[in-house]
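Table S5 (text form). Sequence records supplied for joint modeling of the two-component complex.
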Amino acid sequence: MEHILDIRGLGKIYKSGHRALHDVDLQIRKGEIFALLGPNGAGKSSLIGICCGIVTPSEGQVLVAGYDHQAEFRAARRHIGLVPQELHTDAFERVIVTVNFSRGLFGKPKDPAYIEQLLKDLSLWDKRDAMIMELSGGMKRRVMIAKALSHEPDILFLDEPTAGVDVELRRDMWNMVRKLRERGVTIILTTHYIEEAEEMADRVGVISGGQLILVEETQTLMRKLGRKSLTLNLAEPMLQLPAGLADWDLTLAGDGHELIYEFDSQAEATGVPSLLRRMSDLGLAFKDLHTKQSSLEDIFVGLVHQGDGTDSVTAYQGAGA
Amino acid sequence: MIANPRGIAAIYMFEMARFGRTFWTSLLLPVITTALYFIVFGSAIGSRMTDIDGISYGLFIVPGLMMLTMFTESISNASFGIYMPKWTGTIYEMLSAPMSPTELLIAYVGAAATKSMIIGAIIFATAHLFVEVSVVHPLAMLLFMMLMAITFCLFGFIIGIWAASFEQLQVVPMLVVYPLTFLGGAFYSIDMLPAFWRSAALFNPVVYLISGFRWTFFGKADVSIGMSLTAVAIFLILCLSLIFWVFRTGYRLKQ
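The corresponding structure-token record, covering 576 residues in total, follows.
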């Protein structure tokens, strides 16, 4: 698998003495959507800042499409488009002017047809002659994306693209990201909305305290760490678990009206059919049932709250084994 | 060093467009200021002044007036040009673009210096309305103007990078450059000062700059043209070294 972004041993200590990143190794595959998850202050923005040339790393190396991001910064940066977290815009500029400006900044010749299509894709074409200060927050964010895509990058960094964005724009943003992926653009997004990562990302990286504590395929991660629970709504409330059901990991809830069975959805024998058979044998009736898969959010919270990085990795490996 | 001319052009045009938005103010301000100076110093006071070195007072102040305005305009335009993206945060884009620091410098300082040259030219043209201006060394005058515009724009660029607030942005031009220029013989010859102050004035670097510019007009000045050029060269080298250090360390630009 070809790596379009290769981060090796990256570390960053700010002048204040704060260590934002610690020995980060990360390889991004060409054409994938990678979600970097982490709480505020985990180092997500520092990591992106270094890849894009805004933050100087204290140690380590970043290769962008094989080019060193410092020694060969021109070649490296041509591949990258960045949509920062904050809405930094020139209030008095007009939309089309600022987008053309960004293209020029990256050394590309004018291409009115491409810019027109880009603005149309982002529903900005009608607003092309509007001053940026006249636009709503959502539209400003679209302008930021148009600027980032103006030079046809093949890696797009989206730093918290949907923070403070309404539901509609978020859905548009997701659609846009998918379209870009179809065109072969590699996308790295940071978020603390787990659903975003779960819904869109091919792979997920979890960063906490400046350390990358986990990188995994989203699906695999969900499966590995994903436990399911089966809830049975009993016809008759149960005061205590009958001895005949002692072989299953069961708990009673809802004043004895609910029987909950936690199981590993990946296991050879989940124990569900046998449990239902046994209950039928014992004459225990239920009115309804449903299963629930633990979300990435549960996994994430579990990882981050397990203390420092090393413990989490161990815990993760333990869970995965 | 220069591999992204389109990037330079983009910033240069962006900055020129910014000036263009305030074109009429930018144009009118120096015209009005010049006219006021000529009415007050040239006509009202100047009529009672004796000639300086055989030059009428009205004519004598033309180079000084051009330099005074160009110094302040260069510093404020160049410092503002780089301070604004820092302040609004749009600097992220320049830093993430495939542009070397030198290219950024050329674009920003080039645009600010262009505006200074335009303003200098406007004052020069306005002066013709009040006095008969003749220039002994026109080519040297043009070169000197360019050199001054570039040097002071570099200086302004440094201030713009250093400044952490709008107040700091104003403080150096207002508290250092303006007084130094005013006391630097913009409106008088330092020979007119008492002996002590004449010696003191020689420690003011701006004296050498204005004197050198005056030489290009009249062929004579307070200090020799060689001294003036040396002062210009020292100032230019000082600014360039400072900028080189800023770029190497990423001072106040990168984290």
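Note: DSSP finds eleven helices and 14 strands in chain A.
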